[in-house]
Model the fold of this input.
Amino acid sequence: MDPVIQEEKTGCGIASCAAITGLSYPAAKAIANRIGIFAEDSSLWSDTAYIRQLLGELNIETGTEEEPFTTWDALPDLALLAIKWREVDGVPFWHWTVFVREGEKSWVLDSKKALKTHRRSDFGRIKPKWYIPVNRRERDQP
Done:
């Protein structure tokens, strides 16, 4: 799984979905826009429904609840990870990333454009608040 760089300041959720599905950022953004999700909407940072809706549109199954982060070893092999969590005027905000484990190796895909590397393993510097499990398999079609 490869990182996808966000093209807008608030595009981390779209970039995370693109990375999970193997799409380019423009392709994932076009699908998001078609279903009413726009990177310019700051609620992408404070509501999990949008990222679940976009992954659902891309036929990817996610967990229904946010799970509190406890340890890196306790994470599933693939998860949306909420980092840089904070409250502004009582509204929570965070940055979306993707946690990936393959065999004995694990890393975080971080879409922030300014980073030198977008495949991160500096786990001591990353402060997750919670995560959403992601199923690598496509969800069943109705």
Observations:
- The chain has one domain: 12-138.
- Residues 12-138 form a domain with the Cathepsin B; Chain A fold (CATH 3.90.70.10).
- The mean pLDDT is 91.
